[in-house]
Amino acid sequence: MSSFCVIGLGRFGLNVSKELIQMGHEVMVIDKSKQALMQLSDIATYAIEADVLTEGALSEVGIGNFDCVIIATAVEPQAAIMSTMIAKEAGVPLVIAKASSDLHARVLKRVGADRIIFPEKETAIRLAHLLDNRGIVDFIPLGNDITIVEMVPLSAWVDKKLKELDLRQKYHISIVAIKKGSEVNAVPHADSKISAGDTLIVIGKSSDIENIK
């Protein structure tokens, strides 16, 4: 079990807090709105009403004792920047900050954020890729133009072994897992055969994956 502190209970902060709590982690939530805190007060480990712009507010709640701090208050850039600085100065190993713009992201990175997220932007990109290629079931960008997708096999791939398809040579992609119902072949080999109804986990450059037809 890990310990998390989530600052800001908008839609993103609220949902990530709920998921972490359901997974059994220790979660402290912080927001200046008592109404927002009431949504999690019965299930969060701690629910703290505080304005992070108030001097000493985060230090008083022991921000440095958490394994990860998630700063979900992008609507107030100053609050996100200050929270990031204080969390890193307190020795938090992992600080994840939600950014509202590219400029905001650069500032957050400069003051110490370990990871910057754009939930709305990432969701929009993911949806666009799903709509662009109906064969793709899910889409996860890893950065540096590398993507993992969950996709149904092309009809030409069905009943073929991986060595027959030679996908690395033809498409510059790799199949890293094959799902057959509830079973997952996490280490497919050259003689692994693709069947109708399989789901393939594929990794490659985004541009190469887009060329799969």
Structure description:
With 213 residues, the protein is of the alpha/beta class. The chain folds into two domains: 3-117, Rossmann fold; 122-211, Alpha-Beta Plaits (2-Layer Sandwich), CATH 3.30.70.1450. Helix content is 33%, strand content 28%. It has helices spanning 11-22, 34-38, 57-60, 77-89, 102-110, 119-132, 162-165, 167-171, 206-210, and strands spanning 3-7, 26-31, 46-49, 68-71, 94-98, 115-117, 136-143, 146-151, 173-180, 183-185, 199-205. The strands form two sheets. It has a six-stranded parallel sheet, with helices on both faces. A five-stranded antiparallel sheet has the order 7-8-11-9-10. The longest helix is centred in the middle third of the chain and has 14 residues, at 119-132. It is elongated. The protein starts with a strand and ends with a helix.
Radius of gyration: 21 Å
**Contiguous runs where pLDDT drops below 50 for at least 5 residues:** none
CATH fold description of the largest domain:
Rossmann fold
Give me the CATH superfamily of the largest domain: NAD(P)-binding Rossmann-like Domain
Global outline: elongated
> How many separate domains?
2
Helix segment tally:
9
- Head-to-tail CA distance between termini: 43 Å
The CATH top-level class label of the largest domain: Alpha Beta
What structural category characterises the helix and strand content? alpha/beta
The biggest beta sheet reads:
6 strands, parallel
Mean pLDDT score: 87
Order of helices and strands: EHEHEHEHEHEHEEHHEEEH
Which range does the strand content fall in?
25-35%
- CATH level-two architecture of the largest domain: 3-Layer(aba) Sandwich
